[in-house]
Structure formats: C-alpha cells, structure tokens
C-alpha cells in the first residue's frame, strides 16, 4: 500500500463565485503518484469552498463560467442570497468577530465586510469539501464527461486557496 500527497493553489477572483476546472491537474497528480489502483481524494481545507464532480459543459457565458455553473448560481442565489449586510444573516456574531480580530493571520483581515460571507459557508455546507474517485489502471474512473471542479463560494476578496489531493493504493 502506498500513499501520495500533492496540493494545488488556486486563486479566487474575489467578485463572484469562482469555479476552477481542476480535472487535468488531478490527472497529472495521479500520473506523478505512480499508483495504479486505489482511491484519489480531492479536498478543500476552507469552510467556504467545495469540490464537486459535474459534467463538463462546453458553452460558457462572457465571464467564462460554464452554463451549468451559471444555472447553479441562479438557483443558489434564490435559496441562499448573498450576504451584503450584517443583518442579512445571524453569522457572524460578535463573539466570532472578536475571535477573528484576535487572530494574527493575514488570511483574516480586520475589514469586517470580508467576513460577511454566511452565504458562502452555507453553500459549502450543502456541497461538501471533498470528492473521492476510484483509480483503476492509473486512470480516474470519471467517465467521458465527468470533471472535477473546485469552487470558492466566497465573493468578498481575492485569495489563494489550497486544494489537497491524497492518493492511496497499490
């Protein structure tokens, strides 16, 4: 049994939901792993990001988003509207704001508008932070149209996001 770990760094656009098609990068990582059969886990450590498995759609809007992503955003905007003010959602409460201000971490700036992202946390909770894929004969069993996407639901600032990849097998 062998394990292989790698990580992608993906930059969000900071103004709208960011979709990264990471399929080719994951396939490259599988090749580098030299693992023939096993499981490939693709995971985000960020609470406002998700990894999903979806059909690749060739048609895109002028922002470069695939039509299925545009449709998904339209539905989610109705179910979980964007948080624009502190009164849109209960999150974040004062105790959490105080906690974030106490962090000595550049990923958590003191601009309180950047933490008005309850919608991003809720969306990420709906979709989850990871996907697992079967690896057989050095190939991901994703079918002809199945692609892997990393989504940053947070629309408040540009950030570099981590995507962890762990492959376990023979």
Automatic annotation (TrEMBL):
It comes from the Bacteria. InterPro entries: UPF0047_YjbQ-like, YjbQ-like_sf. Belongs to the UPF0047 family. This is Secondary thiamine-phosphate synthase enzyme. It comes from Halolactibacillus alkaliphilus.
């Amino acid at each position: 049994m062998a394990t292989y770990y790698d990580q992608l760094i993906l930059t969000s656009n900071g103004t709208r939901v960011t979709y990264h098609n990471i399929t080719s990068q994951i396939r490259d990582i599988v090749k580098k792993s030299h693992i023939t059969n096993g499981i490939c886990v693709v995971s985000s450590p960020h609470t406002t990001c998700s990894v999903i498995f979806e059909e690749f759609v060739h048609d895109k809007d002028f922002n470069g988003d695939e039509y299925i992503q545009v449709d998904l955003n339209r539905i989610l905007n109705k179910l979980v509207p964007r948080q624009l003010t502190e009164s849109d959602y209960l999150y974040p409460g004062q105790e959490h704001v105080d906690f974030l201000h106490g962090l000595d971490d550049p990923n958590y700036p003191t601009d309180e508008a950047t933490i008005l992202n309850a919608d991003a946390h809720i969306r990420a909770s709906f979709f989850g932070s990871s996907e697992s894929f079967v690896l057989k004969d050095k190939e991901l069993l994703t079918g002809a149209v199945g692609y892997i996407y990393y989504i940053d639901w947070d629309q408040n600032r540009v950030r570099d996001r981590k995507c962890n990849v762990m492959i376990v097998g023979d």
